[in-house]
């Protein structure tokens, strides 16, 4: 078994290494699922086969040791006998690295798959709400529980609302997770023209705030407080960026969008959502690559649990 286990562990390490160096496109959910299954099988085998076998061997070895000690006139004490048994009962390395890890891996698997999943913000598309380096938590059950890997819905949960900050699988490349704000719900007509947002013919209210200083670009940007649904949040606009949408892709149901020099107007299809970043002129979102189908939803982002550059960032957000 130790050779089989070594091969299995080497496969996991090889996959992780290939993922790290970009040789293969990694899937952490699949990797965690496989690790749970493999260590779970070893854990069952340990409880049902290997542990009883070691107990039997340990009992026999202890009895042989007692007879040998008595034959030589040596002393037999309970403590010495327990030490002999304990040595025989120790798990071999290949069980230590499989069955021994199962309780931890299954706990992480359940927590990450059905309750909360951590994410790191990699880009500035959600500035000023979320900054690069923010470590956030995503609620995995608000929008309904889903099977890991397959992403099949198990429970309905609550439908996403306008203004929610959502993590989803990027439609053009579902192996990537994106985070944006829900702007359009199924059936909505969303218009973003001349940098003003309109939903179903009603302009979304926004109030100008003091300019926002972006430390990464060392530049100031116009900042507004926007009321989207019942959520008040801040957005940024860059006067140096044009209103039109350059380089929009040929995404599914693109015919539901109309592009012009002023921006874009889209009719959100059923079962889909229109997503936008709060950093409106520095966000590749639904304006560029289309709608997010319900099956791509990962969860609702709600809490910053750490930012090593600024502990003041810790807390909930809208």
Automatic annotation (TrEMBL):
Reactions mediated catalytically: Cleavage of hydrophobic, N-terminal signal or leader sequences from secreted and periplasmic proteins
An example Gene Ontology molecular-function term: signal peptidase activity
Entry EC no(s): 3.4.21.89
GO CC annotations, alphabetized: membrane
Active site: 125, 180
Membrane topology: Single-pass type II membrane protein
InterPro entries for this protein: LexA/Signal_pep-like_sf (IPR036286), Pept_S26A_signal_pept_1 (IPR000223), Pept_S26A_signal_pept_1_CS (IPR019758), Pept_S26A_signal_pept_1_Lys-AS (IPR019757), Pept_S26A_signal_pept_1_Ser-AS (IPR019756), Peptidase_S26 (IPR019533)
Record has Iron as a keyword: no
Record flagged with keyword Membrane: yes
Entry's transmembrane regions: 28-45, 93-115
GO biological process: signal peptide processing
Location within or outside the cell: Membrane
Keywords annotated in UniProt: Hydrolase, Membrane, Protease, Transmembrane, Transmembrane helix
Peptidase S26 domain segment(s): 95-306
Family affiliation: Belongs to the peptidase S26 family.
Name the UniProt record assigns to this protein: Signal peptidase I
Record organism: Caenimonas koreensis DSM 17982
Lineage: Bacteria, Pseudomonadati, Pseudomonadota, Betaproteobacteria, Burkholderiales
